[in-house]
Amino acid sequence: MSEHESDASSFDTTNSSTQTNIFLKLSPNGHIFADWSDLPRHPTVRQCVIHYKSLNNNRSHALRVSHKKNNGYLKKIETGHRYEVHVCAVDNSNKILASTQRAQIQTIACNEAPRLRVTKSSPDSIWLEWEKPDEVKLSDITTYKIKINGLTQICVPPTENRYVINDGKSGERYIFQIEMIRSDGKKNSSIPVSINWPCVTLPKCHAIVNGSDELIFCWGDSISINDGNIESYTLHLYDSKENLLSKCGPYSPECRQIWIKDVAKGVYNYILEIKLANSNKSIYSIPMKIECGRESRLPILTYNYTDSSNEKQLVNMIYHLINIRDNMKSKRFFDKCDNQLQQILSILTHLTDSIRLNLMIESNSNKSALKTYQLIIDNQECNKPIPGSVKEYPLELPRRDKPYEIAISVTPDFDGIKSKKIVVEASGQLSFFCMHFDQRQSAESCFYVDTLPREKQSIHQGLLKSPQIMNNIEVYDINENKIIRLPSEGRARRLSILFFYINQCIPSMNHLEYFSNYASNNRAQYNYLSINCTQMDIDDLKETTKDLTDIQCYTDFSSEDFEYEEKHNDKPIHEILEIDGVPMYFILDFSNRIVWKGRLCIQDQSEYDSAMNHIITEVNQIKCSPDKCKLCQYCSMDENRIKSELNTIDRDLQYLLQQRFSQSAKKQQDGEKQNKKRQIVSMKNISNNKKDNRYH
Questions:
Q1: Which of 46, 555, 585, 643 is the most buried (most CB within 10 A)?
Q2: Percentage of residues in the chain with pLDDT exceeding 90?
Q3: pLDDT of residue 5
């Protein structure tokens, strides 16, 4: 049996009509023995592939064995980990013909150490469960000690194998470890298990005085920590002596504003309570003060982007089209994809050439009909006044890099009443790939609308039919402060992912962050190399890459900066490696040959991780699940499916253009959302209950 020299990041058995049992057990030397004798052998079976994944760190491995084999040993395992194992029978095209069920087995941790895991977590409790070592008798164990963040907190008898922790602080990170004390004095500790106590983050809450007897309380969105969720919001309003006056709520998780009317003159304290879902716990904001009673005639100015929904639809269409075009096997529809891309990019450019806003004005003044508003942009008053009865005002501004500062003032008024400023900026133009090496394109332009006309069909190649020898390049090692040659000589112990970028390029810097996060979450599985393709200032690049601890950082360099070095490149790196644009990726196999070459068309970190996992499994000649992998769906499209997708995009685009100026449905929907976000309470309807009224 030969080891398949790769680490498969993920695999799912799909479209397999037959699933049989698999038998697992631990051998005396700690290896996993697997028996799949019940797996059917079809006449076209080429190999059996054993897939095993550690549930502790989510790392996957693969073994390819002869189709005549019925059992084997898994030796590339880590002690103390729980593994999930299944076996597939595949044909010459790697199509799955049959598979076993998934089975799990726990390996021995540190020879004779207990095995600890978290079985359940909620905002109230975390459940710990452990198993004693098979080689240790129960009578030989005197006690277990549960360590929390390195300190012994709890002692439990040897007959127990579970414990519930229910006094943790919401959102804090805890490291659990169990130590087994034996009668002979030996101590064995489990592998540490870390977890964040489930919760949500506290949003910033602030209060606004509206008129002489109205308070508005607003807050933003919370972020979930370890699947923590929100059940409701409640606002507690206290007087200056810390007596509870009003308890507004509970309101739904969609609520973001509470308006309290008929408020008497005075100083108030308020606290926002967030009730956690599936829990008895709540988290509270710190007490804040607000004074009500002074005549406040300040208008309240808010806004939304008129074209944000249409812009998002167009961007999604573009990414969808690019992924179809990059991964299509036939070039029959390549020109049609290009034409549709040009059309959508043209519409998107028109939308983003201006900033279109819908300003919303609210005022508590009873004389609003007798006054007018004056629009102030960048501290300059506009000539056209706005009637005081207007609640919504459309505004279009030219696109620029610098944000706009907008406010409104009330006229006539000798006190200079003016709303708080709002800051609006233009949305970023679509940019995911740039041809900065093309001299016809501006070095400062990262917009894809400029890149598309110069793209070649060979820019994205994907999985290569035959591995290519990578040309040698001389690069400066930023971490080691020396010049080295890539690729290195000899065989590699793991796959290498090379990321080529330009430091001044917008999508390159976005991908550098994605690449760094992926390397941190998949540490030690692959070699991660980033290569800057411009001869820029070394000190500036060191500052950019100083926090990229899981990546080997390199850059092209000028021979003038290293006159003492004999090693240098005769041409720029992108010419030596035939790279037309950035960000670009190479995958090198164990012989340092290029097996995958291309770009990633993604919008966020989750799509990046999914695409990178797909590429690794593709390099390992393992198929993903089309139901779970978006990139796998693009790669599996045939001509009929591509034609259907292009027709659907064309229909959706025409419908979007027809609805471009129809805003009635959108306004109604926004109104419904606003009703959920805002709750109005009157102090006249609040009973004067003084029980349990102190906050602390």
A1: 555
A2: 31
A3: 38
pLDDT tens, position by position, 396-441: 999 888 899 999 888 765 445 778 888 898 887 788 898 877 654 4
Q: Give the bridge partners for 233, in sequence order.
A: 251, 274
Quick one: pLDDT at residue 457? Answer: 76
- Higher-pLDDT residue of 521 and 565 is 521
Q: Does the global pTM surpass 0.70?
A: no
- Structural domain containing residue 86: 19-107
What's the confidence (pLDDT) of residue 685? 62
Whether 541 and 486 share a structural domain: yes
Cα distance between residue 66 and residue 45, in whole Å: 10
- The owner of tokens 């549960």 is 146
**CATH number of the structural domain spanning residue 592:** 3.40.30.10
Distance CA 465, CA 603 (A): 28
Residue from 548, 554, 561, 537 nearest 474 by CA: 554
CA distance 105 to 474: 47
At 349 the three-state DSSP class reads: helix
- Spatial contact of 115 and 81, defined as CB atoms under 8 Å apart: no
Q: What is the pLDDT of residue 693?
A: 56
Task: List, as one string, the DSSP characters of 44-89.
Answer: T--EEEEEEEETTT--EEEEEEETT--EEEE-S--TT-EEEEEEEE
What is the per-residue DSSP string for 353-391?
Answer: TEEEEEEEEE---TTGGG-EEEEEETTEE-SS-EETT-S
Q: Is residue 340 part of a domain?
A: no
Task: With beta carbons less than 8 A apart as the criterion, state whether 190 and 113 touch.
Answer: yes
Q: How far is CA 206 from CA 48, 110, 182, 219, 221, in A?
A: 62, 53, 57, 7, 13
d(CA 161, CA 173): 23
Q: Alpha helix locations (H) across 620-663?
A: 630-635, 639-658
Which helix (H) or strand (E) segment is 128 a member of? strand 126-131
The span from the CA of 155 to the CA of 178, in Å, is 10
Of 570, 600, 630, which closes a domain?
600
**CB neighbour class for 250 (10 Å; exposed up to 12, middle 13-18, buried from 19):** middle
Query: What is the Cα Rg of the chain in Å?
Result: 31
Residues 212 and 165 in one domain: no
Do 26 and 72 lie in one domain? The reply is yes
Length of the chain: 696
Closest among 219, 202, 218, 213 to 268, alpha carbons compared: 213
Q: Are residues 185 and 211 in the same domain?
A: no
Residue 690 has pLDDT above 60, yes or no: no
Residues 494 and 584 in one domain: yes
Q: Strands 552-555 and 527-532, how do they pair?
A: parallel
Let me know whether 239 and 281 are in one domain: yes
- Domain count of the fold of the chain: 5
The 10s digit of each residue's pLDDT in 343-391 is 999 899 888 889 999 998 887 655 545 578 889 999 998 888 888 888 8
Residue 546: predicted pLDDT: 87
- Which residues lie closer than 8 Å to 537 by C-beta, 6 or more apart? none
* Residue 518, amino acid: Y
- 466 shares a domain with 563: yes
Mean pLDDT across the chain, nearest whole number?
83
Write out the H or E segment, with its range, that includes residue 574.
helix 573-576
Confidence grade of residue 689 (pLDDT, cut at 50, 70, 90): very low
Q: Note the pLDDT of residue 9.
A: 34
CA distances from 640 to 43, 328, 332, 335, 637 (A): 31, 12, 11, 16, 8
Going by C-alpha positions, the residue among 402, 334, 404, 338 that lies closest to residue 375 is 404
